[in-house]
Amino acid sequence: VHAKFPFTTKQKIKIAIDSMTGIQSMHDHHLVHRDLHAGNILLRQNSSGVFTAVITDFGRTLDPQLATDQDIPQAPRTRNPPETLVKRFSTIDRYAADVYAMGCNFHILEWRRAVPWAKLYNVYSLQAYSPERREKMHRYIEKQYAKLKNEKIGAILSKKSHGKRLTDIERFRVLIFKMLSPSPEKRPSVH
């Protein structure tokens, strides 16, 4: 998915549904992808202009029960969830990490830019960071997430709390922020 391509709302939602259907199939078979970035989401457009999105590159796929502290949750460092800062890799919910990575991809699809904290830490260098620094970075991400959430979907959440019906793109935007939650237990499953 190239962020410069002007996708319609309907196309964005179709790409998201197709992508998550592929991840759902993997998760249903007790596998996690671990390399979810735009280059691994291929699009095919038929003569009617309808896209089909397909997840590819299963070279890092893993049964989460076999994960060790050496198994980084996501290969692309900017798609690693914030909990990699404060938890041992072997204890991270790998399904939630896949959901977070797809949330990062959908954020780019919708707003054409990565989340502001994407390059804050290098997961490959975490051993060089003190526990205090990691904790501080994690708190910073939580604050940045809250700020960005308010900026991007604050009005939508207010509309929702007043019982007003949300449009498809508004519901998609709310879902993106659920997927990006710094708390893995607050992220939705692929289902």
What can you tell me about this protein's structure?
It is a single chain. The chain has helices at 9-28, 94-111, 131-161, 168-179, and strands spanning 41-45, 51-55. It has a two-stranded antiparallel sheet. The protein has 191 residues and is mainly α. Helix 1 (9-28) packs antiparallel against helix 2, helix 2 (94-111) crosses helix 4 (168-179) and helix 3 (131-161) packs antiparallel against helix 4 (168-179). Helices cover 42% and strands 5% of the residues. The radius of gyration is 17 Å and the shape is globular.
| Widest β-sheet, arrangement of strands | 1-2
Helix and strand pattern: HEEHHH
Main beta-sheet annotation: 2 strands, antiparallel
Morphology: globular
Poorly predicted residue ranges: none
In helices, the fraction of residues equals 40-55%
Mean of all residue-level pLDDT scores:
93
Total helix count?
Answer: 4
Secondary structure blueprint with pairings:
Elements: H1 9-28, E1 41-45, E2 51-55, H2 94-111, H3 131-161, H4 168-179
Antiparallel strand pairs: 1-2
Keywords:
4 helices; 2 strands; 191 residues; mainly alpha; 5% strand
Q: In a nutshell, what does this entry contain?
A:
This protein has 191 residues and is mainly alpha-helical. The chain contains 4 helices and 2 strands; from the N terminus they run αββααα. Helix 2 (94-111) crosses helix 4 (168-179) and helix 3 runs antiparallel to helix 4 (168-179).
